[in-house]
Amino acid sequence: MVNDxxxxxxxxxxxxxxxxxxxxxxxxxxxxxLNRTLKTRHxxxxxxxxxxxxxxxxxxxxxxxxxxxxxxxxxxxxxxxMVFFLMxxxxxxxxxxxISGSFNTYGSRFVDPAFGFALGWNxxxxxxxxxxxxxxxxxxxxQMRISTEKCPGIVWAFILLLFIVGxxxxxxxxxxxxxxxxxxIKVITVIIFVIVGILVSAGVLGGKVYGVKNxxxxxxxxxxxxxxxxxxxxxxxxxxxxxxxxxVAAGESANPEKDIPKAVKQVFWRIVLFYICAIFVISMLxxxxxxxxxxxxxxxxxxxxxxxxxxxxxSKNVMxxxxxxxxxxxxxxxxxxxxRTLWMxxxxxxxxxxxxxxxxxxxxxxSLAFTALIACLSFLSSLFGNKVVYIWLLNASSVTGFIAxxxxxxxxxxxRKAYIAQGRDMNDLPYHAKWFPFGxxxxxxICFIVIAGQGYxxxxxxxxxxxxxxxxxxxxxIFIIFFVSYKVVKKTKMVPLLECDFSRVNI
Length: 507
Description:
This protein has about 500 residues and is an all-alpha fold. The protein has helices at about 25-30, 40-50, 55, 60-95, 100-110, 115-145, 155-170, 170-200, 225-240, 245-250, 255-285, 300-310, 315-345, 365-380, 390-400, 400-420, 440-450, 455-460, 465-470, 475-490. Mean pLDDT is about 80; it is low at about 1-30.
């Protein structure tokens, strides 16, 4: 589709390096184009929508139980620093070369085509399976309200999938608006919770003064010492995954040079403040020794418990509704990210050509349909064989977000090195990542530690739990298989700095 935002060949820079390499010229000159209609508020909320979810509303209680209030705050703070560096790295590349499904493209251009291929397919697989996870969670929420006898759970999962696919089949602006409102509900919930929690802690609501005494209960504030912080640290990273969605949506931004830097700044600070403030308030109201923190369900969600302490008796029902919205939002973002990544892979010749087709609204409809099919099949695997296949799929995708982040760090390091090596003017970059090269190096090291540490519990078991270890690193194995297979078949090599492709659209 060619619309008012279409870019003619005369408005494109000439590519540097090997002209046979896939570039934005090849993509943007196609008649199959996405629409550039997303604004800063859409980009920000898409990323926030993919990040603030059950990890905050439910699983944050487990983090406090494992590491204590101090351990949880330190772990989330460290992960926040890593995310800051990653977001600035991504912002520099995405503002200059705004392409949907950008991770694989940057990896291909600035590292190795095989690296980009593996990044793209792993990221797509991760979000496709994540959608299945959200369907399973949504089924559980609905079964709490309506028994299986009245309506089988699979029906609810199918209805949720229809909603998610329907929102993504709208125009991209329609999708952006839907995600904006979904994410806004979650943001308002967190803000209200923090305010109510502070009032409860001070004794203004609920009739009991909590103060900060729960920070000194038992072993608090730091429980299990360094190991407690490490356990939370490994889990905390998953809560922040989705922030990179700003880069995925870059190709559909109305004004990427301005919108992406704004979104990068807004997303990071908002998400970190939401998580840190929420965990601080939860820690004030609920001691880490409370067994409800480890239950991981809506009835014992830290948010539900916190609202109950204020005297709000309907907190469970309200949180049920909010978490259902959270599931729709996370599934919505996941479907979007996966379909755009698959579309970009197809445009670069790394996926079947049919996936680069778009409909009259600029939606990659076949990429969307295939992603929905895989999500559906992944969900159905949870109904058979005692969920063994489903659990292994989840393990395979669990570290993929960190692999994508690691890929961003590596790609940005090479991006800046190649940019300078080719004698380009730094003033031409719409956005400069701070603390280079310190930022991407630190982000890489932290990502590597988190990925390597996934098998910690298996190694710590007596005897060693080899099954848990294999499951923990399955995602890494899949990435390596993608990388090696493409490298052997295509005989690719690391792209020399002087041949890295910076061709872009002149926005």
